Amino acid sequence: MFGSPIKLPEGSILMRFHWQYRIKVNGKRRSQLCCDGSPQAAPKVHSMTNTYVSCLERPVFRLFIALCAADNLTIYGGDAKDAFTHLPGPSMPTFMKLDDAFRDWHLEQTGVLLDKDLVLPVLRALQGHPEAARLWEEHISAILKDVGFKNTMHKKNIYAGQFCGEKVLLVWQVDDFALGCHQESTAKSVYADTGAKLTLHNEAEAPFEYLGLVDSFDGYDVLQTRDHVKLSAESYIRRLLKAHGWDNPSPRESSNKPKPPMHESEVANLFNLAAGLVKNTPKHKALEAEQGFGYRGVLSEILFAYVLCRPNIGYAVTTLAKFSAAPSSIWRSISVRHKTGALCIGVWNPLHLFLRCLMFRFSSTTLYPSFLLPHIYIS
User: Fold this and answer.
1) What is the pLDDT of residues 127-173, one digit of tens each?
2) Residue-level pLDDT at 188
3) Considering the domain boundaries, does residue 358 fall inside one?
4) Which of 171, 189, 218 is the last residue of a domain?
5) Residues 149, 261: one domain?
6) Per the structure, how many domains does the chain have?
7) Which of 111, 161, 171, 363 suits 14 as a labelling partner, its CA being 20 to 30 A distant?
8) What DSSP line would sit under 23-77, residue for residue?
9) Measured distance CA(296)–CA(66) in Å, rounded
10) In three state form, how does the secondary structure of 116-173 look?
11) Spatial contact of 212 and 224, defined as CB atoms under 8 Å apart
C-alpha cells in the first residue's frame, strides 16, 4: 500500500489520512484507512485526472432482478475483499502526510517513531482518492472480460456470459457482486475464477468471498422465493428509525389501520402556513438540537427509501422538499410520522408479469420495458 517514509519531493501531491469507523449491518466493527480526496483538499488531482466511473443505477438493478425472475435464475452474492489494495497506484505520484495514529502503529510494529515531516509514497489505490474508483472499474472490467463476461455498451457493471453450459447475468457495485444462474456450482466456479485473477503474488488465499444466496444488496432487502423476487427497504427503514429513537411509536401512531385522506381545505391550509425558522440561523440550530434531528437530514433519509423501491411515497417526499428552506413545526412532525409508516412495501416481480416484456413505454429520454414500472406488493 505504501512505500518507505521519505521527505516530500518538491511539487508533489500531498494528501491527509482520514479514518472511517463504522459498525456493519452484521454487527462487526470496522476501521478503515482512507484519504481526503475532496476537491477542496486535492484540487490538482481533480483538475488533471479522469475520475469518471460507472455506477449501478437503481432502475438497472431492478431490471437485473426482473430478468433473473423471468428466466427463473437464482441470485448468489460475492464480495471482493480490500478491493482497492489490489490496484496500481494513482497516475500522479501521491504522498500521505503522517498522522498520530499511523506513527503510533509504526512505533508498536517496528519500535521506531517516525518524524512528522516524513511522508508515505502511495503505491496502491487508496479509498477516498479521486482516481480509486476508476482504477477499480478498469481492473475488475478487464478481469471479468478475461473470465468470459461481456458488458453492455454504455455501462461496465452489467454483464452476461455463458458458463458451465448456462446463461449467467452479473452486476457489481464497487466490491459487491450479484450473479444470477441456475446452479449454485456455476456461481461458485465463476467467483473462484474471478478471485484467482484478483490474487496478488504475495497472497495465499484469493481475496474474494462467496456469500451464498443474496438477501441484501446495495441497500435493498432481496427476498427470493419460488414464485417471485421481492425488493424492499424494510431493514434500512428499521435501522433509520432505531438511529433516531423512533422504533417505538406512540399507541396513537402504532395502528396499522389506514387513515382517511385529508380534506382539500386542510391540505390548502398546510401550503399556506407561515414559514418557519430559516436554516443555519441560531434559532434554527437551537430547534434542531431540541428536536434531535434536522429536517433536511430526515428528508434525505426518506428520499433514499423512495429511490430504492418506494415509488408510492414519491409525492409525499417531493411535497416535503418544497418546504425544506424554512419548514414550520407542522411539516417537521409530518416528516417524522411519514417515516414511521408501513415497512414491508416493496417492488414485486411475479413471473407472469413478464409476458409484457416486449412492450415499451417512453419516459423522459430513456426507454424502459413496461415491467420495470413498479408493481406494489404489500405483505
Assistant:
1) 888 888 888 888 999 999 999 999 887 777 889 999 999 999 999 99
2) 95
3) no
4) 218
5) no
6) 2
7) 111
8) E-TTS-EEEEEEE---TTT-HHHHHHS--------HHHHHHHHHHHHHTTPEEEE
9) 33
10) CCEEEEECCCCCCCCCHHHHHHHHHHHHHHHHCCEECCCCCCEEEEEECCEEEEEEEE
11) no
